[in-house]
Design a protein that fits this description.
A hairpin with a 7-residue loop joins strand 1 and strand 2. Helix content is about 45%, strand content about 15%. It is an alpha+beta fold. It has ten helices and twelve strands.
């Protein structure tokens, strides 16, 4: 517990744990690959079973669109050249353009305190913290965490995010802030006498140096005057829709060329693997079965469930750890729970040490009370799980408020109740696996 608290403090205040997090990201990368594999397989099957006539029709459509885009590009090139000439006459600097690299979406984080996505490229492709991310429609967000193989992007709709914008029609500059609602932005600093209309296009202003100037952000959808207030209530809808996004563009605004060939990772030459981490200390095949069950529970935890289902998802990994701690306490230690929690922190984007504290505490209590819990009926064990998860969620909520200033809604507590309801099913399933493979 002390180590987990120290990790929380160090991770929040300094960057000294970056190398350690990079090593852990290598360890959990197979989980991300496993979760993304079904969608990739489905896409591959769909691509390879498309009818010939449909392919010809799509090819004809793409050729038509390509011709149209080439015509538009000629116009844009002419406008860019004219703009460059005018800037040179005014003796001002002009940025010729930005460089891009494409990445694929791996998962959307359903954490109620933040809204971010995970992509399949990281520091090996020279991505960096704070880098702007877009799709074909407009601005998506910016990178907040980078690992060698993956990167986490905070969306502009995140309640902790704000982006400098300007109204394309008038040039008025202001701030667009996220409110946690999908595809919705708030414009909190619009005076009542401002020249703004519903339908106005919002673009990046370029202030702050994070988002290059001129990219579409959203359109104004609502303007409501507030009596007695200095600013009106204004809302906008984002141009980029995350539910329709699969490919993400990362943009550099620097002039020097960016090498797109992967470079050697900055981390250790030989990254750690699952068998090097002391998740289990059994030398038989039973250790492999336990590790595989925890691996599968992590896949379920980060799977892209729909929002109305995600809020009811139980804490698969914690329930799996509790079962093995009760059934085989000699194979699961507090250190096992601590390491498992660190891996979950990396997967879910929590502060490093947050889940390590919870999982380590779960292992300690389950290990200490296993002889008593074994004699409980399943419904009594479920009650124990319910109260324990409510307590741990209360601790996790306090950590979020203390370190991130995030607030949670009532749906945050659904996980504890769904975990308790599904405990008999998980207990029976893992017991069957334990007996089937004779894990002792």
């Amino acid at each position: 517990m002390v180590v987990s608290i120290l990790l929380l403090l160090i991770a929040k205040q300094t960057q000294h744990l970056t190398r350690f997090k990079d090593v852990l990201s290598f360890v959990v990368h197979p989980v991300l690959v496993a979760v993304d594999l079904p969608s990739q397989l489905f896409q591959w099957l769909a691509d390879n079973t498309t009818g010939y006539a449909e392919l010809r029709e799509e090819n004809h459509r793409l050729k038509s669109e390509s011709s149209l885009l080439k015509v538009k590009l000629q116009k844009f090139n002419a406008l860019e050249m004219e703009n460059t000439r005018l800037h040179s006459l005014l003796e001002t600097s002009f940025k010729l353009g930005e460089q891009f690299i494409s990445a694929s979406l791996i998962k959307v984080n359903q954490n109620p305190n933040t809204t971010n996505i995970l992509i399949d490229k990281g520091s090996r492709f020279n991505l960096y913290k704070g880098q702007a991310a877009l799709n074909e429609d407009g601005v998506l967000g910016q990178i907040v965490d980078v690992h060698p193989l993956t990167a986490s992007i905070m969306l502009i709709t995140d309640p902790n995010h704000a982006i400098p914008i300007e109204i394309n029609r008038t040039g008025l500059r202001t701030i667009a802030a996220g409110n946690g609602m999908q595809n919705t932005l708030l414009l909190p600093y619009i005076p009542h006498n401002a020249d703004i209309q519903v339908g106005d296009l919002l673009t990046t202003s370029g202030l702050g140096g994070v988002f290059p100037k001129g990219y579409p952000v959203g359109k104004v959808t609502r303007l409501t005057p507030l009596e007695g207030e200095a600013f009106m209530h204004a809302e906008a809808q984002t141009m980029a829709k995350i539910e329709r996004t699969q490919n993400i563009l990362l943009v550099w605004s620097k002039q020097q060329p960016i090498p797109l060939v992967p470079v050697e990772p900055m981390g250790p030459e030989k990254p750690a693997t699952l068998d090097q981490l002391p998740l289990m200390h059994a030398k038989s095949s039973g250790g492999f079965v336990i590790a595989l069950s925890i691996f599968f529970s992590m896949c379920l935890a980060i799977a892209p469930w729909p929002n109305h289902i995600a809020v009811w998802m139980p804490n698969w990994t914690l329930l799996t750890l509790i079962y093995w701690s009760i059934a085989l306490p000699h194979k699961i230690s507090v250190f096992t729970g601590f390491i498992t929690g660190l891996l979950v922190d990396i997967l879910t984007g929590h502060l490093l040490g947050q889940n390590a504290l919870i999982f380590g505490t779960a292992s300690f209590l389950s290990h200490s009370l296993y002889s008593r819990l074994r004699n409980y009926r399943l419904w009594q064990q479920a009650v124990f799980v319910l109260f324990f998860l409510l307590l741990m969620q209360l601790v996790s909520r306090w950590i979020d408020q203390l370190f991130m200033g995030a607030n949670t809604g009532y749906t945050y507590w659904f996980q504890a109740f769904s975990s308790a309801l599904l405990w008999p099913v998980i207990f029976a399933s893992l017991r069957f696996i334990r007996r089937r493979f004779r894990v002792q």
